[in-house]
Amino acid sequence: MKIVSVFNITLLLMFWVSNAQAVTDLQRWMLSIPVDETHNGRADNIKERELVAGFAYSPYFEVTADRLVFRSPVQGPKTSSNTSYTRSELREMLRAGDKQIKSQGVTRNNWVFSSAPEQDQRLAGAVDGVMEAELAVNYVTTTGDKRQVGRVVIGQIHANHDEPIRLYYRKLPQHQKGSIYFAHDRIGRKNQWIEMIGSKSSSAPEPENGIALNERFTYRIAVSGNLLTVTLKKAGDEDIVQQLDMSHSGYDQGGQYMYFKAGVYNQNKSGEPDDYVQATFYRIDVSH
After folding, report:
1. CA-CA distances (angstroms) from residue 166 to 50, 74, 158, 175?
2. Which pTM value belongs to this model?
């Protein structure tokens, strides 16, 4: 009986990991979750090999059949002193578990724009990139400051200290459908905000072509040199495409390195402690 039990458990683990890998290549991601099992005062990071081995931590990171579920409460451990918000989020790791490659800097673990200096392009793990994700936002916060309620970042390109893009979903408590917009950080300059569906305003009317909770949609974030292209796709509607010229944003200078992020980055720190954001990802494809 014990042999059969172990065999069944092994099959279940193989099925679980296989399905997770069908969503995305987990050996090329690190996960941050809003718990502190290591008692170091920071959110825990789960490295590539642990993810491939079948890591899960309910309810913040769950693997169910052909999906990954991310949840992040208003209060919880943060990844660093530079952020006020919690997250359950994947961080791209091109090194695929090779710890001899440094995770930070212009190394084989990260990528650069094709507008970056040639030396950086030679040192980096890749040049330019595309991330496409199919997902549904399941829940957003309903309590707290009206400027923060209902906000969550569902995809990013992160650089050294700034983000070329933070892609937001926001649904106000009185609305049935949510908006999509993104922020573009410019080094040493004022950030840009680009609205794609509806508005980022706390007093905006409900967007007619908005996205409801649990409605599946796809976003695509692509960089070619200094050109950022963001595409939204959902059933029954034409694709929405927004392009942005980043030639004056500072990311083509030496030393700037990039990595994709996907999951939920809660953008509410004022709500009830157990209020939360949650999203289910069915597919995350990255190419360089």
Report:
1. 27, 19, 8, 23
2. 0.92
